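hey so u asked for the seq, here:
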Amino acid sequence: MPNQLIGDSEKLAEGQQVFTACAFIHHNFDGIDKVFLPKRATTKKFLPGVFELPGGHIEFGEDMVEGLQREIDEEFGVAIAVGDPFACFTYMNDIKESHSIEVVYFAEFTSSLETITLNPSDHSEYVWMAVNELDKVYSAEKGADDKEFEVLRRGFELLQGGELHLA
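ran it, structure tokens below
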């Protein structure tokens, strides 16, 4: 059953691990690389009104890439080509009472950018941001030191030919 029908992002998952796949959807506009960042609907219980990497929860037994493509189609009505994963981080979700594991993939829209259609129960708007513009979408809940914004900066670095780091 698709996530949006059961409200999976807010369904209690007490003591469970939840896998999430997100897309660093990039596009070059007149020589400037930008990333697609939708803003969560203000009706969301978890991080309402916050800009985020698009994606969502992977269902039990679902392939990560296929789940990411499904989520993008459900939330924006467009298709993506998914590239390599380049980041993974974890966080506690106090709303779901769960531990989330987020895997971030490079991706590009394969549909026309003009066909992006927001699902209003998920997102209220979207922006395309260059690395030097990210501070415009910081919020009280997610600022420069947030793991997701660290991943965004790292994605831009890798797009420019940066080297992989070992932990």
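The domain at 10-159 is CATH 3.90.79.10 (Nucleoside Triphosphate Pyrophosphohydrolase). The first strand starts at residue 17 and ends at 29.
lmk if thats what u needed
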